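Dear support,

I submitted the protein below through the web form. The confirmation email said the job was done, but the results page showed an empty box. After a refresh the structure appeared. I'm attaching both so you can tell me whether what I see now is the final result or a partial one.
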Amino acid sequence: MEQVLEDLGAEFFFTGALIQPGRPVVFGRVHETYFFGLPGNPVSTMVTFELFARPILQALGGPRSAPCVSSMPS
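What the results page shows now:
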C-alpha cells in the first residue's frame, strides 16, 4: 500500500507504531487529502483507530462548538 501511495506523491507523517496489536499503521496526505492505513485484524484496527485516527480526525475537524442554549424560559 505504501508504494502505491508513494507513486501518487504521498507525504507520510508516520509509517508505524511500536504497539501490539496495531501494526502496521500509516498516516499521511496525498495533495489535499489525508489518509490512514490501518491493520487488517479487527482488534488491531479498533486499537489503532482509537489511539491515532480518532484524535487526528477530531483535531482536523477543528474546535467543537458550544451547544445552542435557548434564552426563552421553559
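Response: this is the final, complete result; the empty box was a page-load delay. Strands lie at 11-14, 26-30, 33-37.
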